[in-house]
Amino acid sequence: MIKIRNLSKDWKEFSLKGINLEIKKDEYFVILGPTGAGKTLLLETIAGFYFPDKGEVRIDGHDVTNLPPERRRIGFIYQDYSLFPHFNVEQNIEFGLKLRKSSDTNRKRLEEIMDWLDISHLAHRYPATLSGGEQQKIAIARAIAIEPSVLLLDEPLAALDLRTRDYLREELKRVKRELGITMVHVTHDQTEAMVLADRIAVMMKGRIMQVGTAYEIFNKPQNEEIADFVGVENILNGVVRSNENGVAEIVVDMGYNIFAVSDYHAGTVKSFIRPEDIILSEKREESSARNVISARIEEMSDMGPLTRVRMDNSLVALITKQSRESLGLRRGDEVYATFKATSVHVVR
After folding, report:
1. Are residues 4 and 20 in contact, defined by beta-carbon separation less than 8 angstroms?
2. Domain extent at residue 166
3. How many CA atoms lie within 13 A of 346 on its CB side?
4. pLDDT (tens digit, 9 = 90+) per residue, 153-175?
5. pTM of the predicted model as reported, rounded to 2 decimal places
6. What 8-state DSSP symbol labels residue 267?
7. Same domain, 177 and 259
8. Are residues 311 and 295 in contact, defined by beta-carbon separation less than 8 angstroms?
9. 212 DSSP β-pair partners
10. Distance of alpha carbon 345 from alpha carbon 30, whole angstroms
11. Are 33 and 47 in the same domain?
12. Residue 59: is it exposed, middle or buried by C-beta count within 10 angstroms (0-12/13-18/19+)?
């Protein structure tokens, strides 16, 4: 549905560099990255607010690289809603429809959208009297009223409280599912990306670093920078000692060995282990997991329902509060850290 080839754009203080992306029809595609990665600038370039210095943008098979936004059949939703304060809800939604010839058709479409999103009761209210969640629903209604082929969303949930964010995530999934719109959603929120995305592109410093499913991005990052960003706290440098039947034995810098499913047979590598994949126990227990490593607890930090446990062998584990209490863990305790060879992702 969207094909971006070798796209570059220089703003002097920042630039997009050699962007290549293919976004499928009816896909919910998330562009994930830290603040300042260039996510919004890329989205606005897709929308036609900026024209690239190099490369091309194609939407539904058509070259739109130099077309203005109004000729691209796209809807755009901003974080700050961008509603017209002097228009009521009905007038805000109707704004994009006024270019249509038939006022009867417009009226019918307006009523359908308001009923579908359950906002008919807000029709004569003004934006200043609405909650953040209500305003964002109006922004969604206005964007989809014109029946776009593509809906672009720039951090649409960032300004909302947790409960409203959860509710609107479900609404956005419903919009995609029932209307069949291709959606491109920019965020720095990793939970948001995991919940919504069919696929994710990680963006950093004006470049696309990796594209894949949520599982691939969060469990098989392609380099240390991505691993660090997506919360892989265990990044171990080491050397492959041997490899038998696709299971590599790696000597890590901290002086112990780990086993990983890997094609590497020799040389220096980096091993990534997500902290939630490490199980802690007081005793060395029988397990199918290849990795069982003794350690001493150096620090424990409460993170709501989870506890982050840092050990003296540089490993970090995330365990439930219930596990911590049942084990009676305290700083200085000796424990065994257990994880599977399939939980270790190895890169050069």
Report:
1. yes
2. 2-227
3. 25
4. 999 999 899 999 999 999 999 99
5. 0.94
6. S
7. no
8. yes
9. 200
10. 23
11. yes
12. buried
